[in-house]
Amino acid sequence: MGKYIIKRVLQFIPVFLGVTLILFSLENIVPGDPIRLIAGDKKLDPVTENNLRASFHLIETNDDGTIKYDENGNTIETPMWERYFLYVGGLLHGDLGVSYQKSGQSVSSILADKYPYTVRLAIVAIIMEAVLGIGAGIVSALKRYSFWDIFVTFLSALFVSMPAFWLGMLLQLFFGVFLKDATGGAFYLPISGAGGPYAEFQDWMYYILPAFTLAAISMAYTARIMRSQLLEVMNQDYIRTAKAKGLSRKDVVIHHALKNALIPVVTYIGMDFGGLLAGAILTETVFNWPGVGYETYRAITQRDWPLVLGSVTVIVVVVMVINLVVDVSYAFLDPRIRFGAPKNER
Amino acid sequence: MAENTTQTSGAPKDENTLGIFSAKAAAAAVNAQTSSRTMWGDAWKRLKRNKLAVIGIIWIGIVIVVALTADLWVPGTLGNPTETDSATMAQNSRLAPSPDHPFGTDTLGRDVLCRVIYGSRISLAVGVLATAISTMLGLIMGALAAYYGGIWDTIIMRLADIFLAFPYTLFVIAMLAVIGPGIQNVFIAIGILGWPSIARVFRSAILTVKENDYVDAARAMGASDARIIARHIFPNSVAVIVVYATMNIGSAILTEAALSFLGMGVQAPNPSWGIMIQDGATYLATQPWLMIMPGLAILTTVLAFTLLGDGLRDALDVKMKDA
Amino acid sequence: MEDRFGGVSRRGFIKGGVAAAALAGLAGCGKNNSGSATSGGSSSDAGASTGGVLKYYINDPVAIDPYNTQESEGTQVAKCLFDSLTKYNYDTKELEPAAAESWESNDDATQWTFHIRKDCKFHNGDTVKAEDFKRAFERICDPTMKTPSDVAYHLDPVKGAKEMQAGEADEISGVTCPDDNTLVFELTTPMSEWPLVCAHQALVPVPKAARDDPDSFLVAPIGNGPFQMDGTWVSGQYINVKKFDGYYGTPAKLDAVNFSIQKDPDTAFKEFQAGNIDFCSVPSGRLGEVEQQYGTSDDGYTVTPKKQVLTGAEAATYWLICEMGDENLGKKEVRQALSLAINRQNICDTLFEGSRKPATSCFPPLIDDSPDSTWEYCDYNPDKAKEILDSAGYTADADGKRNLTVKLSYNSGGGHEDIMSIIQGDFEAIGVTVQQNSQEWATYLTALDGGGFQLARMGWIADYPNMDNFLYPNFYSTSSNNYGKYSNPEFDKLVEEARKVTDEDERKSEYREACKLLGEDMPVIPIMFYAHDHIGSERIQSLYYDPAGIAHLGEASVQA
């Protein structure tokens, strides 16, 4: 097991280097000059432009910080590999650089602002996903072919087939607009933002709609996995044996079936956390959520490469670590794995 | 445990694919197909019994027929999806649904139903072509990795890890920023980024099949690698690939809608369902049909593919982690 | 000069409004501080109510630290926190004192002396001295700032400013402080309008803290304005400012302003309807409906109860730049015909419910409303357009199609798609084939520099509210913003001449002459003049939102 973990951690390194290298080369292949973009449609004067480029190490400077010129009086572009090593070097010291487009703000301070919102939203979403998804899956499986089973099956197919941003807008329309009109303003939910000192609602209320929107698709999957796992487990020999022993259905389900059926579900939910962190762009856009997903999207459109690099690298590392933890705990939980499955099957 | 790590399962959930496939699933699928002809016949019988899947097939059929025949009857009845007339535009702007315009009209006075119908062409094209690209790429990469193993396997699978480590939506956006907007680029971007999942599935399937006696026999008889893959390995993995591809069409359509919603999809004035939702979002409270109608078009079409995919999965007895 | 279609919207995040800001800061600086502050005089009872919090929608700014305030969002916040030397009054069209109580120049306007008020204080209690201005200007020109400022060009006329920017000097030699209350500028060239430049929102004093702790200053600047920071800028969420009691001018009536950061006008408007925001822009297409519901402001710039929708004109023009080097668009006749084919009234009516006005020239009426500046080819006359094309050799075939294809280039998002689709329809109506080419803002800017765009959408919001600023930067042959590469020696000469004229009327008529020449050449096809499309809540007693798009929050009042 220890060997396995070390091996997995070692596998992080090429993935991590590959991800940063791809992101880094984006700056060179994506059209649109970020420094040109700083000025918008009004062009910068050459001195200002060079100062900006020098401040981001895009052109070479002398040791005293002044700009280096070649014999023709032109500035010298810093080679990409040199900037890459500079960047990775900085990364090891926790320095993620300075944003191109947010005047003077360091990437780490921007991310420190944004990440907590996304993480909190993802946590609320994962709780919704677990509670509602598992609950619906259990009901669906135990009352197979009943109205509730069909209802859950259909609803989960519906959620999976819906653009999440569209669902978000419908929720806004219903809970923010219609409900307010219908109740004469007595009850409705906040539809945008994350609260704050002058906000109308208590902060927690701002999580309801975006978290539900974010969780919707995964919730549907959780319900489906839960249902099929439970059905499968209920057919296993040891459950039949338990039933034959005369245990009540309730006992069988709670003490035997559920425990085993939950393992893949929990695995799925665990792995999904990374997906929720990374996948919140559309939800954050629709609900004006001040998180990292929208910020990264914005950074791509603004060619704010230091910010893109920083936020995606952090997402990737977090996701890799979570997956490792999930895999390892899965191995602990599932006896079939511990005692060795046939080769290549895992 | 340490012996069982040839495949890392440490990928983040991919927004695009409708499920995470495991080697186990692939193996199960392969084992289910010892006798291929009866398998397809039985599958078809089972599929026909699945009412939801049949509804899905019927709806997909309707959408395809409407999309293909639109030029024959839509311009005469509903008008042209991109044409505007500045003389009458102001009177025709954002009319409520009526017999003349069953889905109402948009800001520029164009019939919404007409645009939804033409939008189906874009969505179907993106869904099918993007899936075709990612499936082809995935099959090639998966085959290379599994069949040749060793350094090939390591490189390709690490590359897949790198691709899967990226947040999917952001990756597509970055990809589109590189190659520029436009419909061709949308399906190229979605297609290229979709290969790792299918590559993993196919690789696992091959690894399982490779151990089988008949492959050894074929090799002993001097069959070439390509022939072994094409004649023996591929047919035995078809079921998984079919299920995967069906579900992937739906998610490619959803991805296109999301990209259009973020303003990175097809070029105006071409109608795309995502663009229409984005346009209609402003009038959510006053003219909700502008945003609801194209949304329903996406919902029903993707739902049809989901139901069909579910049905195929059950019928072909392909096991996937997600259901 | 960035366009503003339907508010800042999706374009906001691509750092729009760079120049909106420039104008805003420069020209829109401050209504007078006396009691009847609002234009239109509709706030006679405004003085009665004080206190309360105003919630104001902005997009996330680029910077609120004045060394780099540029777009309208950052300018709006900085305007609350900082006062510059002078301020411009849009009603009287005159410059008024702010942090400086008076100023004078030498005879040839190369040396300007400002006398700074003795009672002007920073929010931290320090008195504002001349050196605080010098410090601020040097931060703007300092190439060693973490991110150097990109608005330093405003200081270009000052001696030594360019040297400091180039890293050749440690200070701006042309700014001196003979004593605490006297600030002297040495200019490299005569400039009678220098005090107008000094109204810019970047040219404000900063205390020593700005140098000592620049990282904190970036997110919580300390200024000399009517409001001070309440906490720090919470990116993507809010910026709160509260009334500053030590303010030298008329104290703010509001207790605080909560700048609510929203991603786009659609979201902001939803929040407005939910009652969470007091002031925002109206999404395009909703104006007529909200005007009925909330009432229209009398003067177009002041929100008062029941008259809450602002539709006042802005000094900005939306146009299509013609690429002069293009085989077809290089021909004057083609440009004229295309211009005649566009039904501008329809665009304004359908998409803006009449709030924006069809362009009749490159000059919006706020810059010049003389009939001499009207362009002949801004009419809607498709028949004449066809005639012109016929005689220029682009004859129509049996289907009415001509052998002429044009590419319409624009940046995606922001609602430009609808405008371009209408224009496409109009062009097709005279037999011209159209290809739309929308790109991301970042890519679009590069494409503008590179050419090959044929027709490119752009909005122009001037840095200075005068005619020169519409003509020189866009059409002078060597100007960097002359994207179409228009070059007409006769025009260049007319503008050069006009710049030298000191008599105002004479100068204006020279500029009109140049404008007329443009109207014949049509290097741009003007589409429409921008207008406000903003709304305030019923809580607002009085709020003046100037033509440059900056709300004068220091004089605003709400129902407490």
Structural features:
A: 346 residues, mainly alpha, flat, disordered C terminus, C: 560 residues, four-stranded mixed beta sheet, 22 strands, 29% helix
Helical residue percent band of chain B: 55-70%
Distance from N terminus to C terminus of chain A (CA atoms, Å) equals 15 Å
User: Termini separation of chain B (Å)?
Assistant: 25 Å
Largest sheet of chain B: none
String of helices and strands of chain B: HHHHHHHHHHHHHH
Order of helices and strands of chain A: HHHHHHHHHHHHHH
Chain oligomer state? heterotrimer
| Large-scale geometry of chain B | elongated
Kindly estimate the percentage of residues of chain B that lie in beta strands according to DSSP. Answer: under 5%
Total of DSSP H or I helical runs spanning 4+ residues of chain B: 14
Structural class of the helix and strand makeup of chain A? mainly alpha
**Rg over CA atoms of chain B:** 22 Å
User: Unreliable segments of chain A (pLDDT under 50, ≥5 consecutive)?
Assistant: 338-346
Number of separate strands of chain B: 0
- The helix content of chain A, as a percent range, equals 55-70%
